[in-house]
Specification:
about 260 residues, alpha/beta, 8 helices, about 15% strand
Length: about 260
Amino acid sequence: MNNWLTNKGIVVIGGTTGLGLSAAQAFVNHGANVVVIGRNPESCLMAEVDLGQNARAKQGDATDAQTAQNAIQLCVREFGSFDGLYHVAGGSGRKFGDGPLHELTLDGWNTTLNLNLTSLMLSNQAAIRAFMGMNRGGVILNMGSVLGESPSPQHFTTHAYAAAKSAVIGFTKSTAAYYAKNNIRINVLAPALVDTPMAKRASEDDAIQSFIKTKQPLDGGRMAQPNDLDGAAVYFMSDFSRFTTGQVLTVDGGWSVTEGQY
């Protein structure tokens, strides 16, 4: 079953490392042509080499309104179609001042929302405009987080980040409802703690790792790996999800249904 995405053109915003790169490789393996966007020129070069001839990588900042537009145009120009957008780009605002509300700085708030919400709005807007301009349907998959619905007050107290990821759900449901008549489906994939560069703080903290062993108890109790989400991403980008929109799929190893032991 490796042809779920044959000849589909997919843009992955934040697709040169971590979750985005893993998904992009899965998309290529299932027959898609992929354009991946990343901020780091070195990671762009490495991604293009790793993904092979059915992929192109382009440097860009997801918070720039032109980035997604340029990626979509590149996808159409290089591969002849644009069928789906996967928005993965985002990040922690902790170093900018995100944290518990009584310590949260205005810069931390604004930066975190810009990284995780404004960038997503811009890419979704570009995709919607492209689909409507082509007078055809399409699919958008947005990256959420389990923290948007299931907080962890001891170890993960970045309240702006939680607000942004919760807003991703509301934004996705609202747009999914509006554009369903255009046969454009929009969904959210919400992971818990995944072993990516963004999770470096957590991966090196023994107390958090002990907590994760009970909070994400599936498969022996562990952090997720990027490829744990690939199957869900492929499903949402494929025609097998043609009757699914406005949904949130939580891939969290049991986080949201498990108490976890501090």
